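Lecture notes, unit on protein representations.

Consider one protein chain, 468 amino acids long.
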Amino acid sequence: MGLTGLQPGRSTITAAPMPAHRDEWEERLLAHPTLLRDIAESVGGQFHLMYPARVAVNIKAFQQVFAGKGVVGAIYYGKKANKSPAVVRACAENGAGVDVSSAGEFRAALAGGVLGHDLMVTGPAKSQELLSLAARHRALVAIDDLDELARLSALGSAHGVLGSAHGVLGGAQGGARALLRVLPPGSTSRFGMTGDELDLALTLIDADSIRLEGFSFHLRGYAVADRAALASTLIARCREARGLGHPVTTLSIGGGFGVDYVPAAAWDAFRDGVNPRWFHSDRAPQPDSYYPYHCPVPGPAMLAAILDYEDLGDRLRAAGIRIAIEPGRALLDRAGSTVFQVQGAKTRTAHGHPYRILTVNGTSLSLSEQWFDSEYLPDPVLWPQRPGSVSPTCVGGSSCLEEDMLSWRRIPLPRPAVTDDLLIYPNTAGYQMDSNESAFHDQPIPPKVVLHNVTGERCFEWELDSPN
């Protein structure tokens, strides 16, 4: 099939190409004649690549926005986005805290070198063990309901520890550190407290057991205006709480900072032409189920836009309030890939056109988007890279499940893939590579391989990531 087969439209079964943005480290890796094969043979199965130096770059980009806007800010990495200890170490080494939601995540963050007062504890109905860890280590707890406030208050009184807040304005004070999580107006979320519950919480807090440092919220989607508007509203809440004697200094606006996976032209071509014929068994996800793989204002640029919206940054600075963010995916942008080896290939025909179905040495449990009635769209890279004719290709996992498809979409690979080729799915570190993995069929959990820069022909040294 020629290049005309790649144009959007219902006359072809070949999907529009979705080439991912590629960093310099990825170019070096793909250009190396043996490194990927050496890792694949050493590991003996599917594996994930992690490049923590890119995490450091992402952290610094957010920090530069805070500095450029003259706003006091704090970054807490949303650890649920990836379990890799290498990411936690990158946070510890580059001035970022970690957002955790379980006792296991809390301990893993401490083990990675993050100090207790640089942890934020989120999530609903937290376990007593998690709250106890938070109180003992001076972590900042986002309180989700009044019962949780009472339980943390009891622990704050019991521990009676002193400590200073994480880079905040003000001095030391006893008690457990807390934020009150706000239910956004009009939201049906199960998380957060209503206005009446917040009013009651402010009257119930005993300053000897709880140090109230501010408020937090989380919004779905990626709208700049919605985040800025709610943050602006909560500045008044902060002043009100101060009037009641609470040392409020922090407002957390959560995560949801978009990631730009593919160029705008590729995303537009996909949306304009997508149809069931592009997918194996004509199985196309619903149009509104896709992640927005092109984001014109991603990550740090989105933070800058939020702070600029109706002068939010100026208002925060004037009120003496620091802003906290909890990015997960955005701190992992271009920091990892997932590598599969082709185990077999067959040819099928759909709507009068032939296409290939590959089976790889792993499962779609390593591409979590597939398990949310959606599709991970950035094109995998076929390695070794060599010339050939475009081959529309779907990719299946090695399990016995019909639904185990890494790519239902017929990807325009640059040549027909053969057994032992490698497929490298790009930019999978954020939520894709380990959210749903299991030892299905008694296959081992795919390991993470950490790449480190070195000079010379090797270009990288690699090691297995320490256990999760």
